[in-house]
Amino acid sequence: MQANHTPGPWSIGNIKATPLNPHALAVWPESVKVGEVASPVCIVSPIAELDDTDIQNARLIAAAPEMLREMELYLTLLNWIEQERPQWWAEATEGSGIATLNGYRTVIAKATKTGDLENY
Description:
single chain; 120 residues; alpha+beta; three-stranded antiparallel sheet; 3 strands; elongated
């Protein structure tokens, strides 16, 4: 599955204040160098209003590309085990196997869905 998002890894940083925007916490591609003119992946919160929830949200957002990649790799392994080693699958999942696979598939589809947000 190919997602059309800003390639990771991402990291947390600040946006300097401008006349139109306050100083803010943001998530940036790690490829952006200090002083380089670039757009953040997202702006999390103005620094003046920052709280612990904003910081945790920024950390979760920054980890998203790596989590997606790991989930896709793990799903490949789970699919193989389910198809090629059904006995292992049955013993390892004890009845929760389909729910596990469907959960991974649903989250990956949510992250890689293309198009507008109307039917998000």
